[in-house]
Design brief:
The complex is a heterodimer of chains A (265) and B (720).
Chain A (H helix, E strand, L loop, with lengths): L1 H17 L26 H15 L3 H17 L2 H20 L3 H17 L5 H14 L7 H18 L4 H13 L10 H9 L16 H14 L3 H14 L4 H5 L1 H4 L3
Chain B lengths: L1 H18 L1 E8 L9 E4 L6 E3 L5 E5 L6 E5 L6 E4 L9 E5 L6 H8 L10 E4 H5 L8 H4 L26 E4 L2 E2 L23 E7 L14 E6 L7 E7 L2 E11 L3 E11 L1 H6 L7 E17 L3 E20 L2 E21 L3 E18 L2 E21 L2 E21 L11 E22 L4 E10 L9 E10 L4 E13 L11 E14 L3 E14 L5 E2 L5 E2 L1 E15 L3 E16 L2 E4 L8 E9 L3 E10 L3 E2 L2 E7 L4 E6 L6 E2 L3 E14 L2 E10 L7 E6 L6 E5 L4 E11 L1
Parallel strand pairs in B: 1-7, 9-12
Antiparallel strand pairs in B: 1-4, 2-3, 2-5, 5-6, 8-11, 9-10, 11-12, 13-14, 13-43, 14-15, 15-16, 16-17, 17-18, 18-19, 19-20, 20-21, 21-22, 22-23, 23-24, 24-25, 25-26, 26-27, 27-30, 28-29, 30-31, 31-32, 31-33, 33-34, 34-39, 35-38, 36-37, 39-40, 40-43, 41-42
Classes of the chains: A mainly alpha (265), B mainly beta (720).
Amino acid sequence: MTRLLFVLLFLSSCKGNTTQIAKSQIVSYQTQIQSTQQDSLLSGIQSKIYHAFVESLISRNNTKLSNLSKELKVLYKERNQKLILYWRSYLQYYSSIYYFEKGDKQNSEKEIDKGTAWMENMENKNSEDYALLSLLQGFGIQFKGMKAMFISSEIKKNAHTAIALDSTNLRAYYAYASNDFHTPKMFGGGKEAEKYLLKAISLPSQKIKNTYLPSWGKKESYEMLIKLYIKQEKWGLAKKYFLEGIKKYPNSYNIKELASKLVGK
Amino acid sequence: MRHSILAILLLASSFCYSQSLLHGTVINKKGKSVFAANVYLKSDTNEGTITGFDGKFTLKISNIKDTLIVSFIGFKTKEVPLASVTFNKPLMITLEKNAQSLDELIITAGYPISEKFSVVKMTKLDIYFNPVSQGDPLKAITILPASTTTNETANPSLRGSSADRSRVILNGVPIYKPVRASSLNNQGFFSLFNPEIIDKMYVYASNPPLTYGNTSAGLVQIQTTRNIKTNQLQLSTSLASTGFFLSQKIKKDVSFIQVYGNYQFSDAFVGLQKDHLPNIKEFTTKDAGLNFHTKIGNRLELNSFTYFIDEKFKGMNELFTYKGDVDTKNKRIFTVNNLNYYTKKGLLSINMGANTSRSTFRFGNIESKSRITQLYTSLNYKWFALENFNLQFGVSYDYSGNKFNDSIPVYFYALSPNSPNFKSDTAVSNHFSEAYLYTTWNISKRWTFSTGVRSNIPTNSQKYYFSSQFGLKYRLSNKQSFLLSAGRYHNYTTPDYYSHAYNLLSSYQVAIDYSYKTDNTLLKAAAYFINGTGEQTGEQTLDSFFVINKTNTFGIEFFLQQDFYKYFRFTFSNSFINQSIEIHDKSYKGQKNFNYLIKATLQYNNYKLFSLALSYIGRPGTSYNPVIGSTFDNQTGFYKPTFSTNLFSSQYKSYNRLDLSLNKYIKFKKNALIAFFSLNNILNFKNERKVLYNIDYSANHFNYFQFRTIYFGVVWQLEY
């Protein structure tokens, strides 16, 4: 029952992941005349992946994700565009979370490793590619046991490169912060997450709206920032960013969930 | 009439409408279509579209005085005034890649141009978690199959070559004799480097890049850290040392300083295990280091590292038939300074180093005092010329001056304090300038090629030499790669007690390295051949009697690293080395002639509980030249040994050693405590180090490497 509630709340918050982009920060096209690909698989792909993930979670069956993965595979074979490989890797991230939620850590690791390898081997990576690679590596690090400490510096290097390539890419800052947040203090973690998350939430999800390109990261940055302040017992700041976050993403289950930790503080 | 006007207006509007539809294609400089690029109008960014897979787009234009903007990640945004566009023809827009930003350049330039061609890259954490390093950067290398160090020192010997043929480079400056107490009694268990200041360390087992000179074997390249995240104070105490380390930011993200100091003493360490340390009476070492880093503006960066060490050692030593006290003292200070300037397309760097030391060695009737002065300067430019082609070039100047004030035994076998000796004062110096060029070319996704040339700029009687090398890396798949490398190299020997000269050496090297890497498995294999010769007076001075003219080394290496059950790691390596040496045109078996050189480690590493490592090394003993008889010398009262004419025909017994190390990390808020314990040579193997004789050489016995010893201590860290 709890799981079902979680999933439903997750589903309700999923809209925020892709469509709740602050209007003041981006420009949306009112006119998109051409493009035979307007209704193609890649249009709004981020949202499609997320919905497939949520539906897979609800049904406890990954057919939706797996079908989408197959479609992307076919499209990639046909078009050989690295952007398609980006979305295939992004899908692997959710596929890994799906297995993780199911308690199947072995497949979860396999899925994230596959996405990571694709991104690692992608040529001429841009800022978005490095940010995703860093995110995937950051999630995969939990399976790596003693190797985690060695991978950590590699992840930071990738996130750092993502920032260097585009200093206005919020996902680069989020990926950097995410890794720092999850790195044990012993290995130098937890020192820079705040700075990078504050930077991430100050940036637009996309400078020009483009349904083929990624827009994730802002909502996640709010969640992580609030968690960080809760961890550090900085209650005033935790509340401030909770209110700001929930205002921007009222359907976010993960942000809402943090309210219980702030009551009475 | 009204109908006519309406018809004209309709026609006009339809004409206008057809004029406002813009068709175009977005491509990159290589002519490949750019998918998902944004195409929109400057006056109203809401009016826009996205390119399709073929890079094509169609956009309705209402104002031909507007400007079209085309953008995509990683490309320069392009503006096209619509007034210049012919609407009835498809528009072709070419996007150019973004110029490398300064931040990106700083990241890229931070890595050596030859990075892809190094055999191993280690970070600070790799050093700490290395099962054999004992926290020492150069000792960490000994886990590699390519490490053929046989005397338990930290001074790296790579692929069978003598340590003096390889070089250790710190921030672009060579550090000669990079170990502590590296005097005649050949201790040097630890290096001069503190892992806390290290960012990355690269090991080139053979065929090193010619961005550095004065090596004819391998190269270890160390780079100090370029930023610190928090201020940290570290206090440590152990069975034989006490020390501190301070990392302090001076200006956030701009400058920082690292200061450390240690005092090492022997009382507890030796007192607790006197029987297992028969050759050590007492030692004290004081050392201090200072590392300063600052940025001046966006493009200029300065790093300065200075290190001082004062060592005193008293122990027992044996040579031939004499056994007596040995006393060594050494004071050394060196500084390494770097100035980096980032240009639009590269990095201009000036590296400067200075080193001075005074040391004394006393044993029997031998007294050796030496003063060393070294200076080094290099000017380098790393140029990221094209996306897949990089170039580095520069010049270097290296000066060394050695002054020896020695009391030398008249008869090499008569070493008692009363035996005759003679005074010899020698001053030698060497200076050489070199110029080099090194390039790397990423030919395709699978192939990378590098080549380098380096030559001296001879002065006076100096011999001209020219070094050259190439490397070809082939990625068979994402997991497997091959590296073929070959080259001719030159270096000068470092003068010592036996040879007060800078001899020019050279080598031909060829190697093939294979690597297979998955998440849990790392497999490496290599085959190499190294031909080392002396360009002038011989290849290597072995001791008072022999000068090796030529060394041929053929080796095969295998290394496996396997991670399992999340926290366990197992490594196993084996090397086969066939080495022959040439003395006076006759060939003999080399000292490092090993049918096997096995290294194995088992690690359990769970930072929440503890870290434990067991490491084993086993190999045949090295070869030595036996004494086969003696004659009594009335003049000295000592027997004079007669050596076998079949040189290096004897061999020490096989060498075995098993070590254990245990670490526990405890964190509480901003404090951390690290407790460490190590048990070396657990099974107390008696590993023969040096052959010794009774008074008339009728019987022999041996001096041994380290017996079983324990060591433990704690480190307290505070972050603030």
